[in-house]
Design goal:
The protein is an alpha+beta fold and 282 residues long. The protein is 37% helix and 15% strand. A seven-stranded antiparallel sheet has the order 8-9-5-7-6-11-12. Strands 3-4-10 form a three-stranded antiparallel sheet, with no helix packed on it. A two-stranded antiparallel sheet has the order 1-2. It is elongated, with a radius of gyration of 20 Å.
């Protein structure tokens, strides 16, 4: 499979359901220049053309990514089916420990990833970066796993520390959401902003809150918790707007946007350089 900037990649077929290889010898049967049009999914061995840092928000990886965001270099990034991202780095030439942190895995020599651009998922176009020295050291030593204690992003009201029962009071529900967002510590502010925007989007979709009111309340909470400064304010406003609109169409759609669209906007404006997203046709 030829990819601009990467050349011909070794590929092999994988199952749609669990992403397991459909070949007898797993990724060792990967080949170049094959017809993959009828394959359910396309797998690519890692450690040769690139290594991958796999961030999964379902297991708390979004908190790790948020905490380390400013130290990570811009590199080619793929959205994943689970709402996460694959950060591609030039191969370091060694087999790295698989676990970097909760919700963050490293795919290097002896592993593989699904090539999600082939499924039409978005790509952040950028040259593949070298491993940052600090990140490679964490991956080799496993310090991030031992020392990382950040709580994963909340995905339901109980994890926020509140039990928001369906009392019919939009005022009480909104107050609890905004109070949690205003007090969110570093490492959870972005996930909580995204989660709260989803919940407000659901209330807007049900006709309980006006969109402008919800947006203004969320912006006010972001200013209190420290997210709203400089160019970051524009990033958060775009994120809030996108999540509210997605949640009005359904909660499942909104959850898939957490890292596949909003974090790319943070790359774009946060780094103030040229950036593009495209969809690769299947």
């Amino acid at each position: 499979m030829f990819v601009d900037g990467l050349g011909d990649l070794l590929v092999f077929p994988c199952r749609q359901s669990d992403k397991a290889p459909l070949t007898q010898h797993s990724f060792y049967d990967a080949r170049v220049d094959v017809d993959h049009s009828r394959w359910p999914l396309v797998g690519v061995p890692t450690g040769e053309a690139f290594d991958v840092v796999d961030v999964d928000p379902r297991n708390g990886g979004d908190c790790w990514y948020d905490f380390h965001f400013d130290a990570l270099p811009k590199t080619r990034t793929h959205a994943t089916r689970g709402g996460g991202i694959h950060l591609l780095f030039r191969p370091c030439g060694r087999k790295l420990p698989h676990k970097l942190a909760p919700g963050v895995e490293v795919q290097s020599i002896g592993r593989y990833v699904i090539w999600w651009p082939r499924e039409g998922l978005p790509i952040e176009e950028a040259p593949i970066a070298e491993w940052p020295e600090w990140l490679l050291k964490l991956a080799i030593d496993g310090h991030s796993v031992k020392g990382w204690t950040k709580k994963k992003a909340p995905h339901d009201e109980a994890e926020l520390g509140y039990e928001i029962k369906p009392t019919g009071s939009v005022k009480l529900r909104s107050h609890a959401l905004l109070r949690a967002l205003e007090r969110a510590p570093q490492g959870t502010r972005h996930p909580l902003t995204h989660w709260s925007a989803c919940r407000f989007g659901e209330m807007i979709g049900a006709g309980r809150v006006k969109r402008k009111v919800a947006t203004d309340l969320l912006i006010s909470a972001c200013k209190i918790n420290g997210l709203w400064w400089g160019h970051r304010g524009a990033v958060e406003q775009q994120s809030i707007t996108a999540l509210i609109e997605a949640s009005m169409r359904g909660r499942h759609q909104a959850s898939s946007l957490l890292l596949s669209t909003l974090l790319r906007r943070r790359h774009q404006l946060g780094r103030r350089d040229q950036f593009s997203i495209r969809l690769q046709a299947r």
